[in-house]
Amino acid sequence: MNEKPVYRILFALSDTSDLGGWLRLAFDLAQGASEIFLRGMVTVPDEQSLSEGALQARQIRDSIKAAALNSTLIHDQVEVRVDYRPLLAILHEVNDGDYDLLLVQWQGPLEATGGISTDEIMQHAKCDVVLLHGEPWKHTGSVLLSLRGGPNMSLGVQVANALAGVSTITLFHAADRPEFTPNLQAIMKAYPNITRTVTALSDITAGVLNEAAGHKALVLGASLRQPNQDDPQPQSIAQRIFEGTDKPIALVRAWQPEELAFHGPLPRLQSQETLSTRVDRWFAENTFHSSEFADLNELLALKERHGVTISVGLPALNEEETVGEVITTIKSAFMDDIPLVDEIVLIDSDSTDNTVAIAEGLGIPVYKHPEILPEMGMNRGKGEALWKSLHVLKGDIVAWVDTDITNFHPRFIYGLLGPLLKRPHVQYVKGFYQRPIKVGEQLQAYGGGRVTELVARPLLNLFYPELSGIIQPLSGEYAGRR
Hints:
The protein has 482 residues and is an alpha/beta fold. The protein contains 15 helices and 18 strands.
């Protein structure tokens, strides 16, 4: 016996102020076995750099991540799109994936939503679409469902039922001619929540607005139009209704395969896009704060779910003053308290102080990098220690941290591991910090050190501009998949 396929909903949002209400709606729209995917949107004005959206992206990501942890219906991989037209990126995901319904926080027909128009959303989304403006769950009363029948009927009733809850639905039917009016009694019998019907043959806009006064929300079919006449006004009926009422409005459009041939091609995101724009978007969408991953039990659950092991490598050269604190902090937080890290290994570059003795005294394996893979020869320097460490470290995920850090904190570790565990497509994580540069007795700037700002970043920008979004390329904290 075949199982019923999972009903997949993608919810695109830009405002998390009443996320609970929106999620309850998504749950009510779910059908049987369902899964809800959350995608945040940060729409950056055309005159600004996309990197300006990084903070807002993090705030949205924090909110939707917390929601995902509290419901088994919500997929745990939450993402935020930062772009001049972020909803276009989401439409590409919808069309490349296997989604049944796209739910969008809608700005209405008069403004762009996620940087694109309502018509573009309806034209290009290859699944059922629900655009909702307003928050109908804050009101009580019946829902007005206005349709011409046809492809939007089932979806319209599904949305109206979700919005109505225990309340009733009024079906407002727009007919071309009296003889085309369906058997509304049969429809009421098929959908018990529809307790009243109205048929209009002339002024649809006026009829809907008149009925709207007694309802808490409106559901409009995207194909709603003025029947049997040429409309001299350029505005759609949805636009006129939107301008004529302050009630929440849902615009629905059911996806039909036979409509595919009539759809124009969806423009690709990368067409005629500058390198700096791509880098800015990457920075905004992939910059995280360690606080997003401070829940170590959550990280442990993800590690166990993915079935991976984690190693921490500690390159060292004469770090007796700090290495003990670094090892103790990692071991206590990530092995004794929460078994997130499977091994800690010191990679020593022939220290002449007590670095090795301190590590061994704390029970940490020590390897001298000149003795690893001797058949490959030996070179001096940290780079040699790092690449050879991969031969002795066994984890599927490997993190390296410097051992000369004087204010070491567990966030140096979980800030690196979090993105790798929560976002399977991420392959490499690099830490960067806001640190003061002290000149004399004054702190003059934040960012990398002099070598970073005067040498490393300018060279990367010149020869590898795709990497210009890496803020502190010389920072000693990084992690990646083997």
